[in-house]
Design goal:
Elements: E1 4-8, H1 12-26, E2 29-33, H2 36-46, E3 50-54, H3 62-71, E4 80-84, H4 89-98, E5 102-105, H5 113-121
Parallel strand pairs: 1-2, 1-3, 3-4, 4-5
Helix pairs in contact: 2-3
């Protein structure tokens, strides 16, 4: 079964790169959202298999978006991986305390992104 990934990132370039590389390397379907609010609405409507969520976005940042996803019974079970430039040990601990499944450092290697997601979530490619 084809995996469906929702990418929530305010940078159009990141949306496009993740979409192309996940489709090409893993054959996954990729949905995109440019803000936390749009991402929450798409997560509720589309029920993706996982969400890649940017930490630093205007209006509603990644941790706030994640918290709102957790507050909705329809999106609480969707695993979330953060995309972030902040990957120091203290940042990783804070993300784990929030309940996210993992964090992938930006900039990331597009050719390795699908395998990083699969490894984090225990999926086979």
């Amino acid at each position: 079964m084809t995996k469906r990934i929702l990418v929530i990132d305010n940078e159009q370039y990141i949306q496009e790169v993740t979409q192309i590389c996940l489709r090409t390397t893993a054959g996954w379907q990729v949905l995109t959202a440019g803000s936390g609010q749009e991402g929450i609405a798409k997560a509720e409507a589309e029920q993706p298999d996982a969400i890649l969520l940017d930490v630093m976005m205007p209006d509603m940042d990644g941790p706030t978006t994640f918290q709102q996803l957790q507050d909705h019974s329809t999106t609480r079970q969707i695993p979330v991986i953060l995309l972030t430039a902040k990957v120091q040990a203290s940042d990783r601990r804070r993300y784990e305390e929030l309940g996210v499944k993992g964090a992938i450092a930006k900039p990331f290697n597009p050719l390795h992104l699908a395998s990083q997601i699969a490894a984090t979530l225990g999926w086979s490619l």
